Inverse folding.
């Protein structure tokens, strides 16, 4: 087991939880961050079950809240030590066309998916030492923009730009940066999204590959350990990355044809995230939990 700790945002489900389980086998301490205290407790229990010797703790945190990020990260570092591995996986999706989604929806997705990573990086970098590594979970949607992801895809393009800049800025300090670009990944977020896709998006996704969260996490962590900047986790994403200029024309032609056939759907789903099926009561309960817990770690 490696000395030191690992920090994971979005650690209560999906790629984040899968990464935390794998990190717990290799590190003495793992801290996971997510919005919901109850889900954090369940995730902590799951991680402990696969890595009994690891000290695992959960910290309730909305990564979109810059001030809260600074406070909670400081508490986590004090409790767990500075991390050697950081995986930033928190994310949400609002599905629809640019003008069909309101401004609050566009801002919310950017606040979580992009600024949530930025705030975590700014809070953590002062604590990181040579040999540490940061993994950012992007998306194949950050390679080529696809119809229906008007709020989501720009956040992943922005995250890609941030990763490229951080790679240069942190290289001299010996801190690695890795960007994962997964395809559709079998997570609760994807399950909710698939129920809400328009006919056009369903047809576009029909030929796309998908991966298990565990496989995406394993490839990301391996790339981090090997000091690689990119984690392109399967052949289809690899091809999309290298052939994007040519494939963009093909995809645009396909989208235009499908839109002519099925028409434009102006009303799309509400936000899709790890709590996408929760109603107002559950959302209010989570908010009360965060306020009640303050900045304390949830030691499931």
């Amino acid at each position: 087991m490696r000395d030191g700790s690992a920090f994971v945002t979005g650690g209560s489900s999906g790629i984040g939880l899968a990464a935390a389980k794998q990190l717990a086998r290799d590190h003495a301490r793992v801290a996971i961050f997510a919005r919901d205290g109850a889900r954090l407790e369940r995730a902590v229990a799951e991680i402990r079950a696969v890595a009994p010797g690891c000290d695992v703790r959960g910290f309730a945190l909305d990564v979109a809240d810059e001030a809260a990020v600074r406070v909670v990260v400081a508490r986590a570092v004090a409790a767990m030590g500075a991390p050697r591995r950081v995986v930033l996986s928190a994310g949400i999706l609002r599905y629809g066309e640019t003008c069909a989604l309101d401004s609050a929806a566009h801002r919310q997705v950017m606040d979580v998916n992009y600024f949530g990573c930025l705030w975590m990086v700014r809070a953590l970098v002062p604590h990181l030492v040579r040999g540490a590594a940061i993994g950012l979970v992007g998306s194949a949607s950050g390679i080529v923009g696809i119809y229906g992801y008007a709020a989501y895809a720009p956040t992943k393009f922005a995250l890609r730009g941030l990763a490229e800049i951080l790679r240069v800025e942190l290289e001299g300090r010996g801190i690695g940066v890795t960007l994962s670009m997964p395809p559709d990944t079998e997570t609760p977020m994807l399950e909710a999204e698939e129920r809400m896709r328009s006919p056009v998006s369903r047809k576009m996704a029909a030929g796309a590959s998908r991966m298990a969260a565990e496989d995406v996490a394993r490839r990301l962590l391996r790339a981090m350990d090997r000091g690689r900047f990119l984690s392109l986790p399967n052949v289809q994403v690899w091809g999309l990355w290298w052939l994007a200029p040519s494939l963009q024309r093909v995809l645009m032609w396909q989208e235009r044809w499908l839109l002519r056939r099925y028409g434009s759907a102006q009303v799309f789903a509400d936000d899709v995230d790890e709590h996408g099926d929760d109603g107002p009561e559950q959302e209010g309960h989570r908010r009360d939990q965060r306020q009640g817990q303050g900045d304390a770690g949830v030691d499931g």
Observations:
- The first strand starts at residue 2 and ends at 9.
- The chain has one domain: 2-276.
